[in-house]
């Protein structure tokens, strides 16, 4: 009874996981699928163990691929605690240590399945893929807007998933049609061939639609492979990084620190990538060269399966092995997803011959059996408790974002506070909470008639904003968004909080240390020095920004304005002329720059005082478009905020 219940549970999971998503968390796809996998594994373990205790025999199925997966999971776990600035992120983020820890258990569980069940799993997977394809086809045909995601994930990752399923579906279709023609007396193969033929046609239609969308409205933004490869090679420059990498869920830190200078010349220069060009490069950068070697071992093992000889009919297993091998290759050159990784591991397990690695025969003592049952149930309870807190925190955080979009700041404040109470170790929660506190303080300060309660709440909200921003930095010291948020808060409070300019400068410099070749950080620091009346320091930062990227109209224009303030008109004219050549003809930016240049030309021609031109330039500067005005500050807090003293945390 329990054996069949376990099988039906697995049937349901294999069919559901590609389709499963819930838009109640910020990540409605990978996070939800990873959570579903954890729930499935716990239930599968409990049912299997209970069944084994009743039978008095425990069978453990593993092969060399399972061993490699366990080694990969162990390596990622060690890296999370040694290399990652925040191990909790690695243990809660999808496509990180959490998923790698579950994959070997999933592989081992699927190894022990019977041959008829393995075929059913393949068919259920094809059925699930067919439904996703139909969804894509219908929405495309009816011109229904679906955004960049469908149930299986993004358009690109869904196309990869459907492509892998076609590698299963096409051989099965050919095999069924061949059997139908050679065995005319058996109507089973005729019906089967029709079913597989329809499935293949639907999958072909689905992938065609997805490929069209990738060429039109859903073109993905991917890190160029050459850049990802260079980052990976640079990341393994030390013995420690060879073994452990930069740490799981920490690719963005490796990217900002190690990206080459030529990245500034690409169209993605302002993009912060959180994953590399492919899943394998992300894995290697985060977990080290050893993880790549283990991945290659799995690849080689899969190739050997294609030449393995068994006494059973090898067709289903060989099809699964070919599809699994193709999936591994695709993950080597393209990004990965929870759906893609689970499909890959499922195919690898289905391609193996089911033979128990070891068998434990339980004694007749009830105490021993009770002991084996209690511990897994206790561990499962702890896992569910931890998962529930992580899950509820994500739900609360998503609700807060929705409330902010509706303009309900106070309600969003409470939901963000609730998310932090469930899981206080996620830096992005604290970043959002700090921004909400500052926005609420700003809103209160703009009120015409402030009562006593509002006057008391404003400094409290400002202090909470600073504290939450500092907590975010402490939780993840290599997070560029955390430091960016902290610097913006300090800059916004420069005129209202004693000592904030000092901390603003330090946080801006920390951003440069984390992202050294990004000219925008030097530009922000230059503009800060300009507001602090430090023209020489500002000039140095402008020069460094231009060294990193000369063809940036923002930098050239702002540098020109600084030089005008210093009455260096010839140099200012040179930089403004360069900026003029970098903006679109006929745009507002062109008009803005031309007016500034005209002011310089009139002054130098008439050799008169520059008061009128200076005032004109300052007026232009205050009205300049956003793509030329790179202000390092958030909207200033009104002067009604009381001045408070800053203290180092």
TrEMBL record:
Descriptive protein name: Uncharacterized protein
Region feature Disordered, mapped onto this chain: 606-649
Signal sequence residues: none
InterPro entries cross-referenced by the UniProt entry: TPR-like_helical_dom_sf, TPR_rpt
Biased composition (Polar residues): 606-630
TM spans (from-to): 6-24, 36-54, 60-81, 88-108, 120-142, 154-174, 194-214, 221-243, 288-308, 320-350, 370-392
The UniProt record lists the keyword Ligase: no
PROSITE patterns: TPR
């Amino acid at each position: 009874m329990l054996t069949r219940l376990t099988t039906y549970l697995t049937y349901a999971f294999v069919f559901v996981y590609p389709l499963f998503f819930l838009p109640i968390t910020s990540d409605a796809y990978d996070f939800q699928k990873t959570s579903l996998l954890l729930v499935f594994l716990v239930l599968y373990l409990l049912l299997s163990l209970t069944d084994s205790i009743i039978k008095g025999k425990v069978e453990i199925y593993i092969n060399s691929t399972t061993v490699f997966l366990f080694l990969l999971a162990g390596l990622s776990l060690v890296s999370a605690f040694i290399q990652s600035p925040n191990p909790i992120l690695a243990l809660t983020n999808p496509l990180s240590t959490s998923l790698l820890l579950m994959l070997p258990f999933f592989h081992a569980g699927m190894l022990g399945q019977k041959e008829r069940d393995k075929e059913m799993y393949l068919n259920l997977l094809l059925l699930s893929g067919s439904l996703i394809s139909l969804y894509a086809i219908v929405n495309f045909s009816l011109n229904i807007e679906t955004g960049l995601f469908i149930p299986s994930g993004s358009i690109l990752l869904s196309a990869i998933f459907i492509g892998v399923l076609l590698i299963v579906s096409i051989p099965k279709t050919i095999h069924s049609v061949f059997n139908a023609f050679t065995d005319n007396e058996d109507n089973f193969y005729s019906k089967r061939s029709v079913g597989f033929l329809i499935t293949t046609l639907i999958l072909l239609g689905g992938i065609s639609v997805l490929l069209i969308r990738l060429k039109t409205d859903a073109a993905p933004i991917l890190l160029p492979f050459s850049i990802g490869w260079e980052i990976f090679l640079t990341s393994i420059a030390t013995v420690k990084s060879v073994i452990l990498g930069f740490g799981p869920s920490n690719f963005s830190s490796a990217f900002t620190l190690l990206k080459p200078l030529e990245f500034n010349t690409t169209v993605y220069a302002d993009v912060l990538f959180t994953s590399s060009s492919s899943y394998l490069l992300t894995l290697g950068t985060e977990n080290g060269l050893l993880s790549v070697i283990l991945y290659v071992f799995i690849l080689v093992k899969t190739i050997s399966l294609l030449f393995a000889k068994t006494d059973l009919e090898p067709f289903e297993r060989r099809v699964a092995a070919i599809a699994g091998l193709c999936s591994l290759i695709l993950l080597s050159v393209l990004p990965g997803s929870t759906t893609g990784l689970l499909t890959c591991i499922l195919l690898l397990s289905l391609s193996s011959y089911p033979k128990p690695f070891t068998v434990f025969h339980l004694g007749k003592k009830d105490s021993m059996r009770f002991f084996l049952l209690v511990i897994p149930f206790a561990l499962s309870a702890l896992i569910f408790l931890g998962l529930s807190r992580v899950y509820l925190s994500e739900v609360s955080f998503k609700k807060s974002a929705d409330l902010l979009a509706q303009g309900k700041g106070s309600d969003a404040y409470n939901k963000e506070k609730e998310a932090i109470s469930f899981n206080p170790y996620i830096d992005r929660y604290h970043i959002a909470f700090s921004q909400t506190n500052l926005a609420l303080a700003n809103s209160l300060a703009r009120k015409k008639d402030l009562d006593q309660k509002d006057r008391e709440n404003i400094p409290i909200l400002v202090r909470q904003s600073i504290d939450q921003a500092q907590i975010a930095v402490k939780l993840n010291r290599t997070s560029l968004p955390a430091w960016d948020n902290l610097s913006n808060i300090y800059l916004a409070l420069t005129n209202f909080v004693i000592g904030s300019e000092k901390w603003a400068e330090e946080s801006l410099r920390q951003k440069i240390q984390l992202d050294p070749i990004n000219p925008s950080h030097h530009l922000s620091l230059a503009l800060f020095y300009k507001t602090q009346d430090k023209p020489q320091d500002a000039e140095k930062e402008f020069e460094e920004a231009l060294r990193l990227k000369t063809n940036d109209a923002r930098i050239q224009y702002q540098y020109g304005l600084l030089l005008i303030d210093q009455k260096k008109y010839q140099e200012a004219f040179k930089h403004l002329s360069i900026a003029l050549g970098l903006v679109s003809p006929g745009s507002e930016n062109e008009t803005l720059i031309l007016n500034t240049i005209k002011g310089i030309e009139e002054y130098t021609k008439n050799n008169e005082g520059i008061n009128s031109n200076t005032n004109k330039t300052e007026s232009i500067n205050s009205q300049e478009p956003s793509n030329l005005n790179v202000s390092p500050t958030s909207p200033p807090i009104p002067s009604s905020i009381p001045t408070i003293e800053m203290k180092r945390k």
